[in-house]
Design a protein that fits this description.
single chain, mainly alpha, 3-stranded antiparallel beta sheet, 28 helices, 67% helix, globular
């Protein structure tokens, strides 16, 4: 599919704006202008972050406008080859209408104070086209902003066009001009105006291909303006379009779903309300098959979402099913893709290797801090992962020693960064013995595990009552009647 979004970015003033956008995305809060100018928004990338960098895999599935924040994020790290990143930005943007910024990149690369004539000439051409588009679309734009006109529009696009043509002289060419102007505004980085124009075009256009392209354009524009509520509305529209309009073209569906999965990474970790909705979408059969077939690296983000969702939905059947499905997919795709996050899942839930889980969690923390989408969620991921390790550890042990010893004895029992240790619980968590005991008490309470803390002995005693044979039979056959009924109904058809 030829996507609406391939050509361009912003004419002027975008560098500071996109830097602010990048940091807002990764930190979930606006940075100060001074912090941005002083380069204080990011720390250096570690070797682990470099080793598992997904940028080469993400870029082919993103529009150049959506790619630019990732490069800007990368350039904020100390130790990176800044000259190489600058050249990458220039190559990305040189065919865009962002002439002022591209010219500044050229000056930086060539260490020159002169602005080449081609940039000056292109800037004038862009301004002339902007003036022409504004003049040619002013009439239809005024009509679509007139309440008396809009109130007469219906859901039938053909009828709407006929009404506007008869009553106000609107032509198909005028409607198409909205699409062209929306593309132009997007190419200049005026994302809010682009979203408005493309939305107006969709209301009137009967051209399904252009309407689909406009939907992708509006989704990208809304992402870049961080209008997350509208983004989720557009995600649902694009998803519905993929399911209904491309049902007879499986390859196109696969490609479009791959793009949509990558684009939804932006709201995934920046809009809390969308987390559950997107997670549920990615676990649906069509999307999980797409991930396994086309983009297994997305398992990093899916795993991070499931683990960080633990504090909200850990005791629900939905969460347990998602965790079970995640473990299954990670196990299946281990030959195709792995990183510290997926290896942490495998170590904890497949191999039950707590020492390996501890090692992978430390690596995962370093890797996540260098990931554009997950850097702000790194601490939440580590905390949630520590709880999961503790839960698993407590389920298979009856007596856990948490006594704080000041001797030089080595830890005899180590359970991931979360630390259920014979020694050094406090050192691992940055807590003294009393705080460590309080932390364990809160863990037992939050997870509703049957255990008690022996203050005198400095141990946690877990109660693991064994189910009787009869109870096990009841549990295993509990759903058999329902499954038999469903199977019988299916056979009867």
């Amino acid at each position: 599919m030829e996507r609406l979004l391939s050509p361009d970015l912003r004419l002027c003033g975008i560098r500071t704006e996109l830097k602010r956008y990048v940091v807002a995305m990764t930190d979930n809060k606006p940075p100060t202008a001074e912090a941005i100018q002083n380069g204080e928004t990011h720390r250096g990338l570690t070797s682990t972050a470099h080793q598992y960098d997904l940028l080469p895999k993400l870029i082919p599935n993103l529009d150049r406008h959506l790619t630019f924040p990732l490069l800007e994020f990368l350039s904020g790290f100390e130790g990176d080859e800044s000259a190489e990143v600058t050249k990458a930005k220039f190559e990305l943007l040189k065919r865009t209408n962002m002439t002022d910024y591209v010219a500044s990149l050229w000056q930086e690369i060539n260490d020159s104070d002169e602005v080449p004539e081609e940039f000056v000439r292109k800037r004038e051409e862009v301004l002339q086209r902007l003036s022409l588009f504004t003049e040619e679309t002013s009439r239809i734009d005024d009509l679509l902003n007139d309440e008396s006109v809009v109130s007469n529009l219906r859901s039938d696009k053909v009828a709407n066009l006929k009404f506007l043509e008869q009553q106000h002289g609107v032509t198909i060419q005028m409607v198409d001009m909205l699409y062209d102007f929306g593309r132009f505004q997007y190419s200049c980085g005026s994302y809010a105006n682009a979203a408005h124009l493309l939305d107006q075009f969709r209301i009137l256009s009967t051209d399904n291909d252009k309407a689909s392209s406009a939907s992708w354009g509006k989704l990208a524009a809304d992402i870049l303006t961080t209008n997350w509520e509208t983004v989720m509305e557009e995600v649902n529209k694009v998803k519905e379009s993929i399911d209904t309009k491309l049902f007879n073209n499986p390859l196109a569906q696969l490609d479009h779903r791959t793009w949509l999965i990558h684009w939804t990474l932006f709201p995934f970790f920046n809009y809390e309300t969308a987390r559950d909705t997107i997670t549920e979408m990615l676990f649906s059969p069509s999307f999980i098959n797409t991930i396994q077939t086309n983009c297994p690296w997305i398992l990093r983000y899916l795993a991070a979402a499931v683990i960080t969702n633990r504090s909200r939905t850990r005791n629900t059947g939905v969460y347990q099913k998602q965790l079970k499905d995640l473990v299954r997919v990670v196990r299946q795709e281990g030959y195709e893709y792995n990183d510290p996050v997926t290896e942490f899942i495998r170590a904890l839930y497949v191999d039950f290797d707590f020492e390996e889980a501890q090692k992978k969690l430390s690596e995962a923390e370093e890797m996540l801090k260098g990931d554009f989408f997950l850097s702000a969620a790194a601490d939440a991921f580590v905390e949630a992962a520590r709880h999961l390790i503790s839960e698993s550890y407590c389920k298979i042990h009856q007596r856990i020693d948490i006594k704080y010893e000041t001797s030089s004895l080595r830890s005899l029992t180590i359970c991931s960064g979360l630390t259920i240790f014979r020694r050094d619980l406090s050192a691992r968590l940055g807590l003294n013995q009393d705080e460590g005991e309080k932390w364990i008490v809160n863990l037992i309470r939050d997870t509703r595990m049957d255990g008690k803390l022996d203050y005198k002995e400095g141990t946690v005693l877990m109660n693991h009552p064994a189910n009787s044979v009869y109870q096990q039979v009841i549990e295993r056959t509990k759903g058999s009647f329902f499954r038999t009924s469903v199977l019988s109904a299916a056979v009867a058809k």
